[in-house]
C-alpha cells in the first residue's frame, strides 16, 4: 500500500501545475502490470495494438459515449452520417463487438476513452 504524506502530495501538485508529471515510483510496477495485462488479455486477442484506433475513430467513439446521435456527430466532425456509421461498424468488427453499447463499454473498460 502506498502512503501519501502532505509533502509528497504538495510536491506532486506543484509539479503537475508546472506542466510536469508526477507518478509515485511504488505505482510504476502496478501500471506496467496493468498495461501488460491490457495488451495480453484485451488488445492481442482482438488483433489490436495500443495505437490501433485512429484519432477520427476516437473522436467518433467519444461522441457516441457522450450520447450524441449520428446526425449530430456527422455535423460536429464534418463527415457524412454514412462515414460515421462506417467508422463505428469498422471499430465493432475489428474489436469483435456486437453493438454500439458494447463498443462504448469496451472502450471505457480498456481506457480507450
UniProtKB/TrEMBL annotation:
The keyword Electron transport does not apply. The keyword rRNA-binding does not apply. InterPro entries: Sig_transdc_resp-reg_C-effctor (IPR016032), Tscrpt_reg_LuxR_C (IPR000792), WalR-like (IPR039420), WH-like_DNA-bd_sf (IPR036388). CDD domains: LuxR_C_like. One of its GO terms (biological process) is regulation of DNA-templated transcription. It holds the Pfam family GerE. Keywords: DNA-binding, Transcription, Transcription regulation. Residues 46-111 form the HTH luxR-type domain. One of its GO terms (molecular function) is DNA binding. PANTHER family: TRANSCRIPTIONAL REGULATORY PROTEIN NARL-RELATED (PTHR43214:SF24), TWO-COMPONENT RESPONSE REGULATOR (PTHR43214). This is DNA-binding NarL/FixJ family response regulator. It comes from Streptomyces iranensis.
